[in-house]
Structure formats: structure tokens, C-alpha cells
Write a structure and sequence with these properties.
This protein is mostly helical and 322 residues long. It is built from eleven helices and six strands.
Length: 322
């Protein structure tokens, strides 16, 4: 072939294409020899599926069939977290919303051809169990109030310049909000540190030695559940038997004859309700009457931040239980 110039020119022209066709043929043969099994038939995915089925069966045995419950709350089966209203509304409207997106896709890309069929479809971040709405930032309200105050003061100051005879001190002597900022923050009464009131009380620094041995101890249970954290317990029943009861037993002594547990509440007309609203609320998690639900150990403080959670939790802590 090297002695014939025409053969060399023909090989240079057809050689690369021949190599490409051979490589393509061999790649097709390799794909045909590979397994045609489904991607979810791998051993790791099968083991994960079996583990999920076993966990679901444990839920059915321990808590009963969750699908026969009636109510307006949408509850996660594994965590018992009650979804907020935005997630429930989003899931109820998912079918109608998806049908409208499909009709819009067919109308704009197939029938009218006003949009290219290869254009990227916009992602819709609908609220689901994994995509819950974010809680409102603590500083977003303050920024909005400051912006409104800045705009209001600017307008008032510009109007004051058109009246040079007015006294600027008298002008800025009046409040521009309904509640004085020194006493209220965006309509809510400002809170302070309770220990600061001790400086105003003239209490002599004398130790009382009359009652050395007490016979009755009074425990604040809402504060106690914040102190005694579930370090080893997995369910609420385990928390009572493994943590709460041993702590109460450790307070008994030869002189202590009785331990009284005091439970706190948040009435609608109480000043503590403002503190509860200021601190915020955690996710709503249902316990159930049997107390065999799992404890959110990582989010224990967030769980106790929800008033409804504490009402349900304190209800199962009956005197006969303790």
C-alpha cells in the first residue's frame, strides 16, 4: 500500500470513518451484553427497601394503622410531626396544580408552538414533607418597621422645611407610633430580666437557719423537663421510667416525706403568653395516649417550645405514671 500513492490517499480518507464505525459497533455489542435489569434491582436498594418495609410494619404493630385515623391534621408516620397548614394545602392542591401545568405545557409547546419544546421547564418548589415553609426571621419585622419610620420621618422633615416658623423641638416631641417604643416592640410589651428587680428590693443579706430539714419539696415540672434531657430514652415512656422517675427519687431523703409537682399553663390573658410568642414555637409533634412515640432527642428544646406539645406531654405524666 505504501508503494501506491492512490491507495494511501484512499486510506487517509476512509480510515478515520472506518475506525469510528468499528468503535461504535463494539460499544453497541458491549451494551447488549450488559444486564438489562432495572436500576432499583441492585442489592443495596433492595436491602434499603426491605428495611423500610420492616420499619413500617413496626409502626403498624406499635401504634396501629395510621390510615384509619380521622382528623384535620396531616401527620408524618415516622416522626409524628404535624405538618403546618401551608403543607397540607399544597398537597391537597397538588393534583389540580399538576394538571394545570400539563395543560399549559401542551398548549404552549405542542399546539401553539410559542415556546421551544427544548426550553427548560421552571421548577416549582411546592410545599411537601421535606420542603416546609421557613419560619419568619426574627429581624425581618424590625427591618420593616425601621424602613417605615425612616420614610415617615423623612416626609415629616420635608414638610417641616416648608414651614420655617414652626419649632422643630415641638415637632419631634410627639411619638410617631401608637405604642411608645420604650415600652413596646411592634405592639408587644417589652420584657426584661427578672433578676433586675432584686436591686430595687431592700432585702437584708441574712441567712435563715430555721428550716434546715425540709419535709416537702415543690418542683416546677415545666422547668424540670428542660433540665432532665432524654439522653438514653427513645420513647416518651422510656423517658419517664429512665430519666424523670429516677430524678424525682433522688430528691427523696429521710426528712422529705412528699414531693409536690406543679404544672404551669399559659392562659390567654397571661403576661407569659407574650413571652411565649416572642420566643417562637417549634414543630407540632403528636405523642398519642400510649406514650410509645419516639422522642425528638435532637430537637428536644424545639419540641418543648410548642405549647400544644407540652399540653399533650404533661397529660401523659399522670400521678399514677410517676
Amino acid at each position: 500500500m505504501y508503494d501506491d500513492a492512490d491507495a494511501i490517499a484512499l486510506y487517509m480518507l476512509a480510515g478515520p470513518e472506518s475506525v469510528r464505525l468499528i468503535d461504535q459497533f463494539e460499544s453497541v455489542q458491549t451494551m447488549c451484553n450488559q444486564s438489562s435489569a432495572h436500576h432499583e434491582e441492585s442489592p443495596s436498594l433492595q436491602r434499603r427497601f426491605i428495611a423500610d418495609v420492616r420499619k413500617f410494619m413496626e409502626v403498624l404493630r406499635d401504634r396501629g394503622n395510621p390510615f384509619v385515623e380521622t382528623g384535620h391534621d396531616l401527620v408524618s408516620i415516622d416522626t409524628n410531626v404535624v405538618m403546618v397548614d401551608e403543607v397540607t394545602k399544597s398537597l391537597c392542591q397538588m393534583g389540580t396544580f399538576g394538571k394545570s401545568l400539563h395543560d399549559d405545557y401542551v398548549q404552549s409547546r405542542v399546539l401553539e408552538a410559542s415556546v421551544s419544546i427544548s426550553d427548560t421547564i421552571k421548577r416549582n418548589n411546592a410545599y411537601t414533607f421535606a420542603n416546609c415553609p421557613d419560619s419568619r426571621s426574627k429581624h425581618s419585622g424590625k427591618v420593616g418597621v425601621l424602613k417605615k419610620d425612616t420614610a415617615l420621618v423623612t416626609q415629616l422633615f420635608l414638610s417641616l422645611q416648608s414651614r420655617p416658623d414652626e419649632n422643630i423641638s415641638d415637632f419631634f416631641r410627639y411619638e410617631n407610633q401608637r405604642e411608645p417604643p420604650s415600652l413596646a416592640d411592634r405592639g408587644r410589651l417589652r420584657s426584661g430580666t427578672k433578676s433586675d428587680i432584686l436591686k430595687c428590693l431592700a432585702v437584708p443579706n441574712t441567712a435563715c437557719t430555721d428550716a434546715r430539714d425540709v419535709t416537702v419539696q415543690v418542683l416546677d415540672m415545666p422547668a424540670l423537663v428542660h433540665i432532665v434531657r432524654p439522653t438514653h430514652a427513645t420513647t416518651f415512656n422510656d423517658y419517664v421510667s429512665m430519666h424523670l422517675v429516677p430524678y424525682l427519687t433522688s430528691n427523696l431523703s429521710p426528712s422529705v416525706e412528699r414531693i409536690d409537682a406543679v404544672w404551669d399553663v399559659y392562659p390567654d390573658d397571661s403576661l407569659k403568653l407574650q413571652t411565649q410568642l416572642r420566643r417562637g414555637s417549634g414543630p407540632r409533634t403528636r405523642i398519642g395516649q400510649d406514650g410509645r412515640s419516639n422522642i425528638p432527642t435532637r430537637d428536644w428544646q424545639k419540641y418543648l417550645a410548642n405549647t400544644e406539645n407540652k399540653k399533650e406531654f404533661f397529660f401523659i405524666l399522670q400521678p399514677e405514671t410517676l
